[in-house]
Amino acid sequence: MNTPPTPDVKLLRGGRWTRPWLLTLTAACVGLLLVSLVGRGLHAPPAWFAMLTLVLPYLYGALGAALVTTWCLVPDRRTPPVLIGALLLAAGALWLVPHRALDVPSSGEEVRLMTWNVQRLWGEAPDPYGCVVSAVQSESPDVLTLLEVSANDVELLSAELGMVCDHATYHGTGEGAVGGVATCALGDRWTLRDSKPQRYVDHRDWFYLFSELASGDEVLNVLAVHLTPYALGSVDPSLWDLAPGSRLQGDVARTFRVQGDESAALLERVSKLKDPTVVMGDFNSTQDAALHVTLRGHMMDAFRDAGRGAAGTADLFGWLPLRVDYVYATPHGVEVVGARVLPTECSDHRPVSSSMFVSRPRSST
């Protein structure tokens, strides 16, 4: 003898709320697909749109879970699976990149790269300097770029690690304890030949560091970058700080536009360089932002193409992993063979390490 369903189950399986709920899920799927499509070309979105783009994979996951739950509970066997299929196809198009076999190229010089926002060594580690030194020694990169680091920090780290570094402040002036970026050469395989601070755009005093390194006959340009950060005003802002009408809404929209201008300026600079070039650092944006879609159209994203393991380099609100630190390389004269995010807690960012082979492009004549 079958037990009759309870009133609550009757309501969920075929009651008056089933159709409105399915319509709501359908609208949410259509909206999410539109955000995915439009966001790839929108370089100056409103703040609310920028925040949706920031956490896009998590929105896909949450909506997918809601659809699977609905499919299990309601009698409609067509709408939920169709919507799930549409989400899976869209997610595959956005993020499913087949990884290439990590074959060693037959020519070129190997270079191991590492980029790390060390938050001016304000991490919660008991000994932040020792923590950074240990992590770098363990990875043993040939070239290291450091962000949120002062000239004093670089001097101390250089003495511990035996590396040669050049430093530039974010605003192009000041020394000592002023924060900025640095490019360093470790070991004797690659030599740091020259470095110059460069403005991203002419009318803004925000700088990156352009460096030239050499190994034998091979030359590698390295751009250590830290795109304009969001002025959140606190170390761990809450979701309420980002509510519509809050003071942070204007900052998010403005910063998003500035980051787009900076990335466009970087691409323009790279397009004029003949030698293999790497752009790496903290971009303060996730891979679904329009600026990264544009960058991937001209350069290789090392982790996206050859990465393994967890991709999150920083945690939003202290718990939601996001990938905001990148290693990009020009397709000419560079073969990326591996990339990974290192699981260290010295800073609020985790470092990105990448291996590649570099060879000077040869003329076709």
Task: Please report the first level of CATH classification, the CATH class of the largest domain.
Answer: Alpha Beta
Quote the average pLDDT: 86
The number of helices is: 10
Strand and helix order: HHHHHEHEHEEEEEHEHEHEEEEE
Give unreliable regions as ranges.
6-12, 232-242
The major beta sheet can be summarized as:
6 strands, mixed
Estimated radius of gyration? 23 Å
Report the helical percentage. 25-40%
Q: What class do helices, strands and sheet pairing give?
A: alpha+beta
Portion of residues in beta strands equals 15-25%
Set out the fold topology:
Layout lengths: L6 H8 L3 H22 L7 H8 L1 H18 L5 H17 L13 E9 L10 H12 L3 E8 H11 L2 E6 L9 E7 L5 E9 L7 E9 L2 E9 L20 H25 L5 E6 L7 H7 L3 E2 H5 L7 E3 L3 E3 L2 E5 L4 E8 L10 E7 L7
Parallel strand pairs: 1-2, 7-8
Antiparallel strand pairs: 1-14, 2-4, 3-4, 5-6, 6-7, 8-12, 9-12, 10-11, 13-14
Helix pairs in contact: 2-4, 2-5, 3-8, 4-5, 6-7, 8-9
Describe the model:
This protein is an alpha+beta fold and 365 residues long. The chain has 2 domains: 7-95, no CATH class; 109-358, Endonuclease/exonuclease/phosphatase (Deoxyribonuclease I, Chain A), CATH 3.60.10.10. The chain is built from 10 helices and 14 strands. The strands form 3 sheets. Strands 3-4-2-1-14-13 form a 6-stranded mixed sheet. α4 (56-73) packs antiparallel against α5 and α6 (128-139) packs across α7 (151-161). The protein is elongated and about 70 Å long. The termini are far apart.
